[in-house]
């Protein structure tokens, strides 16, 4: 027997490194007319590096001590920023002490007890909660340079900031314009990162519509607003923080290589081979299959 069009489209998608979980997903994918892309790990390579280590003056910590505390707290986390911080500490040959009471809040950061001190590492906007502190200026300075500024606090007091940079994927610009052409709508960037770093990366990727500083639930709201305006939205993401939006979207695709288990389970399809450019290819395949079915 010849294979039904939707099934051969699934097989074809597999050849392009994309696991589409069902024929129904293939059908829904053919309907998408708008795209919301996550930043970290989706538009970017997802292998960020620590570029700046800034202990606050007067906190009594050296660069290595600041990095060591942050790495200890981040050690259990699977977030790309956490891996960057742990890698930076290892590269500097630092011993990373054990942490207790680890907890993570998607879209915000982590907390843990390190050597008897309560350490928090995460978004400066969230940890400072709009308050003004010398750390605000340090973080803003890093963000002006397009970095993700991660704040470190000890027992509630800011002690320093880390500047972290990630590179745009090589195929990001081509993918954004291919998706724009296919859907007739300019793709949107939805990110938990700060507006400055987000705007800078969006400009590089050719995206004009940027929604930054979003918590996981805000990403859902952004998608729901698009869907209420009559769009069938394809969400592409990789993190735990993307899972609710992947679930809420008409169709959700997760980036597989560094993607969190929750994102891979929640998404309707997974880019296994880590090539963003496979996404427009698969959208095209789904549409061809739909024409054959109809
Ligand atoms: P994105 O939506 O771009 O993938 P996330 O929602 O995962 O980003 O993270 C948003 C912001 O929250 C990060 O830019 C960072 O400031 C903070 N954050 C989240 N998780 C962590 C973590 N494990 N360590 C430090 N900061 C974190
Ligand atoms: Mg992400």
From TrEMBL:
Sections of the chain in a coiled coil: none
Signal peptide: none
Subcellular location: Cell membrane
Family statement: Belongs to the cation transport ATPase (P-type) (TC 3.A.3) family. Type IB subfamily.
The protein, known as: Metal-transporting ATPase
Organism: Streptomyces yokosukanensis
Shown stretch of the complete protein: 304 to 597 of 657
């Amino acid at each position: 027997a010849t294979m039904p069009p939707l099934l051969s489209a699934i097989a074809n998608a597999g050849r392009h490194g994309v696991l589409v979980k069902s024929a129904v997903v293939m059908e829904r994918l053919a309907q998408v007319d708008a795209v919301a892309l996550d930043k970290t790990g989706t538009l970017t390579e997802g292998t960020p590096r620590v570029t700046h280590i800034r202990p606050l003056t007067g906190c009594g910590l050296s660069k290595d001590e600041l990095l060591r505390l942050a790495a200890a707290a981040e050690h259990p986390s699977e977030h790309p920023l956490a891996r960057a911080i742990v890698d930076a500490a290892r590269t500097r040959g630092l011993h990373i002490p054990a942490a207790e009471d680890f907890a993570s809040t998607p879209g915000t950061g982590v907390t843990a007890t390190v050597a008897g001190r309560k350490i928090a590492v995460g978004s400066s906007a969230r940890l400072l909660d709009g308050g003004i502190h010398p750390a605000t200026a340090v973080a803003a300075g890093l963000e002006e340079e397009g970095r993700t500024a991660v704040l470190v606090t000890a027992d509630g007091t800011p002690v320093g900031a880390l500047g972290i940079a990630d590179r745009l994927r090589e195929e990001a610009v081509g993918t954004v314009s291919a998706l724009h052409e296919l859907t007739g709508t300019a793709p949107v960037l939805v990110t938990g990162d700060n507006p400055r770093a987000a705007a800078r990366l969006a400009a590089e990727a050719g995206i004009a519509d940027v929604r930054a500083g979003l918590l996981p639930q805000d990403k859902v709201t952004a998608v729901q607003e698009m869907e209420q305006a009559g769009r069938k939205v394809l969400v592409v993401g990789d993190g735990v923080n993307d899972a609710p939006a992947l679930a809420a979207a008409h169709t959700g695709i997760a980036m597989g290589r560094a993607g969190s288990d929750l994102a891979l389970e929640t998404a309707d399809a997974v880019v296994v081979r880590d090539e963003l450019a496979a996404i427009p290819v698969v959208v095209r395949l789904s549409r061809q299959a739909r024409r054959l079915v109809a």
